[in-house]
Amino acid sequence: MNNYKKFGVIAGQVFIGLGFSILGGIVGLICDYIVSKTSGVYSDFSEFLLNGLIGCYIGLLTGVCFDGYKYLKQNGRQNEFLKFLLVSGIGISCGILGLYLIVTNYWSFGLSNILANSLAATLPLIGILLGSILVLTRDTPQT
Question: What is the DSSP letter of 44?
């Protein structure tokens, strides 16, 4: 696989993941609103945002896995989807852990607010794209 095709696969993963992430965030907020209206227990603003953020992460994982499965099926490598899903799940978990560590301790790392916020926004995406880099762009041996 040449570098141009690898870049295309990664760029596709980024855009599909971000699109699904936005949709997941909207769905998470709508679900929180519906549950609040039906149960009569209203969440405060931070819980409302946290539900939207959880929806974003679930949407991000769903979008990247959807695009990755389409790519693997197109190339006849469906049996590698479980490995791709596992690496992507571990990647987003590590990204969220890094997000937590940076947000809670950015002052001890000597980071500015702008750099800490930028890293916080991109770490889960970088973590989940490790699945794309490690599994999807790997060259298959010719038999």
Answer: -
Taking CA atoms, 84 is separated from 2, 18, 53, 55, 69, in Å, by: 20, 18, 23, 21, 9
- N-to-C CA span, the chain: 16
84 touches 72 (CB < 8 A): yes
Which residue is listed with tokens 């596709």? 12
Q: What Cα–Cα distance (Å) separates residue 107 from each residue in 24, 111, 118, 119?
A: 31, 6, 14, 14
| Token pair belonging to 53 | 């953020």
Give the whole-angstrom CA distance, residue 125 versus residue 108.
Answer: 24
Contact 10, 141 (CB under 8 A): no
Q: Where are the domains of the chain?
A: 3-136
Query: pLDDT 10s digit of each residue in the chain, 143 long?
Result: 677 777 888 888 889 988 999 999 999 999 999 999 999 888 888 888 888 888 998 998 899 889 888 988 888 888 888 988 888 889 888 888 888 887 788 777 777 778 877 777 788 888 888 777 888 777 665 54
3-state DSSP of 110-143 = CCCHHHHHHHHHHHHHHHHHHHHHHHHCCCCCCC
